[in-house]
Each structure stands twice: as C-alpha cells, then as structure tokens.
Amino acid sequence: MEKYKAKLLENIRKQLQSWYKGTEEINGKELYKFLHSLAGTAPTIGMQKIGDAANLLMKRYMEIPGEMWSTEAIQQFLSPLLAVAYDEDSVDFTGEALSKKYAPEEKDLIMLIDDDPTLLIYLKDELENEGFTVMAFTEGKKALKAFFDLDASCVIIDIHMQEKSGLDILEEFKRYTNFRFIPAVMISVDDTKETRMKSYQLDADDFIPKPFDLDELIVRVRRLVTKKKNMKELIMLDELTRVYTRKHLSPSFLRIAQQMDREHQPFSAAMIDLDHFKSINDTYGHLTGDRVLAGFANLLKQNLRTGDLAFRYGGEEFLVLFPRTDVNTAKQVLNRILNRFMEHPFESDGESFRVSFSAGVSAACLAEGLENTVKAADHALYKAKQTGRAKITAVEALGPVEAMRKNLRFAIVDDDPIIRTILQDLFQSSSLNEKFLLNVQTFEDGLQFLQSDWHLKDPHSFSFIVLDGMMPEMDGIEVLKVIRSLEHQEQFTVVMLTNRTSEEDITTALKLGADDYVTKPFKLAEIESRIFHLIKKISS
C-alpha cells in the first residue's frame, strides 16, 4: 500500500508543477477533476484525510464563481489540502487557511555544540522528540556568536573538539553570561577527576560522561531548564540592566493607569531604542554592547524622577511609564537624558565612541490600555528614527494606530511544489505579520533563485531563506556558498532542509554558515516554532 501512497503524492506534485510552470490561467474544470480524482483514490489506499480534504474543497469549489483560475488562486485554494498531504498528523482538516491552525509554540531552546556529526544529529533528534527546540553548532566560535542572539534555556558542550576545547568554550561562554543564568552541561569521554573538576571550576552546571544513558541526560537537562524557568519567574529586575523586566510591565501599567484615572492626572509612556545598536555589536563585540546597555540603563535610572518606572522591553528597547506627567514634560525629561547620554563616552580596545537613542512619547490612559499606548509610542519612535535619530518625538492623542513593522523577506527555495506552497501560506498568514512586513517569494531551484538576484536586492532588510539541500539544477550547498560570500551576508538567516540520512550535507551546511537545519519530512508546527526562535535573532 505504501508504494501507492507514494505514487499518489508524486502525481499531486506533477500536477502542481504543470500548473505552476504554465503561463496561462487554469480551467476550473481541471481543478475540479483533480479534486474529484483525489476524493475517490486517496481513501481507497488509506489516505482518508486527503480524501476528506478533497471532498470539502469540491463543495467549496461549487460555491466560487468563475471558470478560470490564476496560479496564485490555485495555490491559495489548495494550500490546506497540501498541508494534509504533507503532514497528515498536523491538522484536523476544516478548510481554514493553513497557518490559522498553528499557534506559535514557545519551546525551550537548547544550544548543542559538538563537532561529531553523528552524535550531534542523534542528540538533536532525541531532544526535539522530547519537546525542545535545538540549535546545533559544530564550531564553538559560531556558537558563541549566536549565543547573544538566541535566548537559550540550556547549553550542551562536548569537551573534546578538534578546533577548540569545550572547556575553552565554556570559559568564554560563562564570561559572556556574567549577567544571566544559562545552565551549561559538559559531556565528554574523559571521565577523569581532573576533567570533572576543571569543568566545575569553570562553572559548569553539570558533567555527563560518555557513553551516557539518553533518558538520564534528558532528565538532567530538563531539570536545569526548569530551574532556569523558576528563577526567571522570581526575578523582577533584568539581570543585565537592572531595570524591571517586561513581565512586570502589564500589572504596573494597570495599577498606575487606574490611579491616574481616579485622580484625573495626566499619564505618559515612552518607547526608547538605542541608535545603531547592531553596528555597535558588529564593530566592538557583544560584550561591549552589553556594557552600553547597562550604562544606558544606569543613566536612565539616575535621571528619571521618583515614581517614573523603566522596563527593558526587549533587546535594546526600553519602555518608561511617567505617572502624573503630560507628553511635553515627558519629552523634556527624555531630551535631558538624551543630551547626557550622548556626552557619555564608551571605550573598547582603546577606541572611544558615543551612542545616542531615539524615543517616542505617547499619552497613556486606562481606556486605551497598554497595547494601544505601546503602539502609539512605537509609532512616534518610528518617526524619530525616520527623521534622523537622536531625537524625541511625541504624539498627543491616543487612537487607532498601526503598529510599526520591520521589513522581513522570505525566500523558499525547494523543487517540491507541495513544500513551496504550504510554507508560503504558513509564513504569509502567520502571526509574524503582526510585527513584520513580510515579503514571501518561492523559487523552484537554486539556479532560478540566483538568477532572480533576490539575494542582491534590498541589502538592508533582514532576509530569511529556507533552502532545500538537494535540488536538480543547483543544490542548496552551492546557493549557501554564494550567500555567505556576500558583503551583506549577515543580513541572511538560512535554514537548510535536508534528508535525515545526509550526515555529510548537514555538517557541510553548518560549517558553511547555515543557521539551522530541518530534516525532511518535518512537522509544520515544528518548523514554525524553529522560525520564531531564529526571528528573535534578527529582530533583537
């Protein structure tokens, strides 16, 4: 029966390729005939969900007028059926847009650093089966660079690696995590007292000798992840900047807004963002970036008035609540802080530099709530950024305001039309649209992608590429080499789609600079969760 299922999926792919490659519109009768065939054949060979999906779409087809269909309309119409065809366990088919079925799941992220590809792939698979998201690294240097961008719940490091000792990586890692608790687990074939002692002296949180019992390793990792979660719940102040964490923003806003409402007092809020912070990290390193954040937060606290509250909103963004303060007064306070901050010198390797910030101020009140207040302040911040930075912009009146969104480009490069269609729909309709202006394009192979010059356009926007490792014209590895040779290659986040057996391809992809890999067949919910973790990296 399995060979008939494979044959059916292959026939679906061929039909889609035929439609997608054509330049003319498709006659609706062809579409109906295609669905009718699936509705009859799929249940017969044990693919009941595909049959149900085809039946539902046949009924929907009868409700839609028009005989000719564009390629785009066909893609959108068939997207839910293709999701079932690719990932039968993922949905109970109701005919809704694909991405509406998935709420992005915030899984705990494990960073895994090991240059043994066999163990790396095995551990990644097993930990992901246990509900973690795992980012794998074969090189310590790349892992340390990514560490600042990924909010990891735990790091697992192999001690004996060819390029750099895991103990050296641990030492740097702990130096970087001076302000944060991120558990580190060391694994090693060397179970001597000296190695264990050295690990603990460098502040490892656990040491697990090889060969290890997998169940025990998972229990020990989960225990540390839970410990980190519990500590995070208890912490009111951000570990680096010592201002309140975002978790305490909502109750603080509600408390102040209710009080200001009762007392008929003005209330303002400001969103602050350090200017060009990414270039500070890129130029001077993340440790210097951390010092800038801590220095700014310290100056902010020293210059706010009694009763004003500062929160770390995310990355280099801060939010300040100003009770009993109108917008103009809040703007004056922030202008005074901006001038003092720009006079403050920072140093790195003997080089001195100065930093500025931009801010947006908005009136706040109980009726509009936190969400609309943040949107208004964010909108004002955007104007400050657009008009030169190092300034404070204010909006007086609250009202319906569109949230400001960054541009984010997605390229899906895969010769499988089913994967292209379902991923395009997943991204286009996902909750990512609330934060980003998404531009999603698909390409049927690496050659078409490079010939389109997509990778050379809009070099200042963040770009995300889902890249199939095996394609007929030009494979993903060749495309990855081109991407990583570009001057603006840091703007690209690349996820490779690979076959589970291609260990060499996975190792090569990671060494060439892939940010993550996903083995086929993948679950749609899994790839979305993975994308959300990587989005943090580029949106911070």
TrEMBL record:
Domain GGDEF as annotated: residue spans: 265-397
UniProt keyword list: Phosphoprotein
- Tell me which residues bear 4-aspartylphosphate: 158, 468
Give residue ranges for domain HPt. 1-91
Task: Note whether Phosphoprotein occurs among the keywords.
Answer: yes
Q: Where does the Response regulatory domain start and stop, copy by copy?
A: 109-225, 409-535
What CDD domains is this protein classified in?
GGDEF, REC_OmpR
Q: Residue positions of the PTM Phosphohistidine? A: 36
> Per its UniProt record, what Pfam families does this chain match?
GGDEF, Response_reg
Q: Which SUPFAM superfamilies match?
A: CheY-like (SSF52172), Nucleotide cyclase (SSF55073)
Q: What NCBIfam families is this protein classified in?
A: GGDEF
Q: Which PANTHER family match?
A: DIGUANYLATE CYCLASE DGCM-RELATED, REGULATORY COMPONENTS OF SENSORY TRANSDUCTION SYSTEM
By what name is this protein known?
Response regulator
